[in-house]
Amino acid sequence: MATETESTAGISAHMRGVTVTTLASLAGVTAGVLSAFLAGTDPAAATNQLALLVLGALILVQFPLLRVGGIEVEDFGAKDYLYVVFMTFALWFVSWAILLTTGASL
């Protein structure tokens, strides 16, 4: 897992885990805000497929960003990819649900 293996690029396992978690969390919140901005926050927006497209795009953008940040994505296993996807999805879901529930206008 990204938090358990030592990287050969000079990044400690702890920093690697912190970097992956931080990027996944920020991407999830960004996806939630972008979903609210693009799809809206009215009750009908909850079924808008554009929000899933935003989520998928922000999941895919993370892996090149991790490479630029010095994380060797080639060493990722299935568990690492699932971790990134789950963390991004969970924070997207929570942030977009809060914006939908409050009806905030962006």
Structural key phrases:
single chain; 106 residues; mainly alpha; 3 helices; 67% helix; 0% strand
Strand and helix map with partners:
Layout: H1 13-39, H2 50-68, H3 78-102
InterPro entries: EMC6-arch
Keywords: Membrane, Transmembrane, Transmembrane helix
Pfam families: EMC6_arch (PF19094)
Brief characterization of the structure:
This protein has a domain at about 30-100. Helix content is about 65%, strand content about 0%.
The residue-averaged pLDDT reads 90
End-to-end gap: 37 Å
Which value, in Å, is the CA radius of gyration? 15 Å
Strand tally is: 0
Q: Report the uncertain regions.
A: none
Pfam families: EMC6_arch (PF19094)
Transmembrane segments: 20-38, 50-69, 81-100
Keywords: Membrane, Transmembrane, Transmembrane helix
InterPro entries: EMC6-arch
